[in-house]
Design goal:
It contains 7 helices and no strands.
């Protein structure tokens, strides 16, 4: 079982992470680098701008871009380990998991790790106002944990009580409220921040769907090979 989980997670997470990293380089990283220019004062919202500086920073950097893809692969390998373990546990409880169902597992992972916490604590570009990082990290981890349990209950239970508990778990962190800054003022244009949120969540959605599909495929393949 551990061999199935490990091999599936390495291949699935590595492939999904590489694709996610490439998408981030094209759609997300330019926004981050652009926001850093506002954070450093090289660009000013509703003011003068340093176009040459922006062009220099936004150019290609092989080392930086390569490390970004490697880190993305490492992150999604970790996610794939968690997803593969959850799928294996579901199979032990008598639930069949097909490659097609891997799509739903991937969507559940996206909801738990990105959409649920992002509803009240959206992805942030450099330079925006934010609450204390420790408070945000604690709230994020608790939200992800409750959302993961909720998605498990929604997907694998058949009881209205469990579904009601799942809805409560999804809503509870947001009813309590995420840590927020005292003021939302910052040097970065809000248009840039909103574009970053949409693209970060979009890339995350694609990456998680691919992770679910790849994990379920490799686990099914490994199981067939073992039998």
């Amino acid at each position: 079982m551990f061999r199935r989980i490990a091999i599936s997670a390495l291949f699935a997470g590595g492939a999904a992470g590489a694709i996610a990293g490439a998408l981030q380089l094209v759609f997300v990283q330019p926004i981050l680098l652009h926001a850093e220019l506002y954070e450093s004062g090289q660009l000013v919202h509703f003011g003068g701008s340093a176009v040459s500086a922006a062009q220099d920073v936004l150019g290609m950097d092989i080392m930086r871009d390569g490390l970004s893809i490697i880190f993305s692969m490492a992150i999604y390998i970790g996610y794939a380990f968690l997803l593969a373990a959850a799928i294996a546990l579901a199979q032990e409880q008598g639930h069949s998991v097909s490659v097609r169902q891997g799509l739903l597992w991937g969507l559940s992972g996206f909801v738990a790790t990105q959409l649920a916490p992002g509803f009240s604590l959206a992805p942030e570009v450099p330079g925006v106002a934010a609450a204390e990082i420790v408070d945000r990290q604690i709230w994020w981890f608790l939200t992800v944990a409750t959302a993961a349990v909720a998605m498990w209950l929604i997907g694998l239970s058949k009881s209205w009580r469990m579904w009601s508990l799942a809805i409560f778990l999804l809503a509870a962190p947001h009813l309590i409220g995420a840590p927020q800054p005292e003021s939302f003022a910052g040097p970065v244009p809000p248009e840039l921040g909103s574009l970053f949120v949409v693209r970060a969540l979009g890339v995350g959605l694609v990456a998680w769907v691919l992770t679910g599909l790849f994990v379920s495929y490799f686990m099914k393949h490994e199981h067939a090979g073992a039998t």
